[in-house]
Amino acid sequence: MHEPMSSDALAPARLRLGDGVVDLATREILMPGARGARRVTPKAIGVLRMLARAQGAVVGRHDLLAEVWPDTLPTDDVLTQAITQLRKAFGAGSVGAEAGKRYIETIAKGGYRLTVPVEALAPDPSQGVPPEGAWVTDPAFVAVPVPVPHEAPAPHRGVALRRGVWLLATAALALVAVVIGGLWATLESNHLASDAVAALPGPAPVNRPYRLITSAVGFALSPSLSPDASMVAYAASDETDATHQSAILVQTTSSAVPRALSRPPPGARDDLPAWSPDGREIAFARWEVDGACRVLLVAATGVGDEREIARCDGSDLLSFDWLPDGSGLLFGTMTGVEEDARLRILDPVGGHWRDVDYAGAPGDIDFSPQVSPDGRWIGFIRNPQMGDLWRVPVAGGAPQQVTRLGAELRGWAWAPDGQAMIFGLRVDSESRLYRADIDSGAVVDLGIEDAQMPSISPSTGMMAFVHRRPQFGIFQVESTSGEWSRLFSSSGRDSQPTLSPDGGQMVFTSDRAGRFELWWARLDSDASLRPIEGVRPDTRQAPAWSADGRHLLISALDDGNAPMILEVEPVSGRISRLPVPGARPAQAVYGPDGVLFVLEEDREGGTSLVAYERATWQPRGRLDGVSQVRFDAARNRVLYTRLDASGLWEAPSSLEADGIVRLSAAVPSRWRYRNWTLAADGRVAYLDASPACWSRLSHYRIEDGVLNADAAECIDPMLRSATNGFSVNARSSYVSLASEDGSGIGFMPLPSARHAQWGFFKWLISMKNKAS
Question: Is the pLDDT of residue 217 over 50?
Answer without folding.
Answer: yes
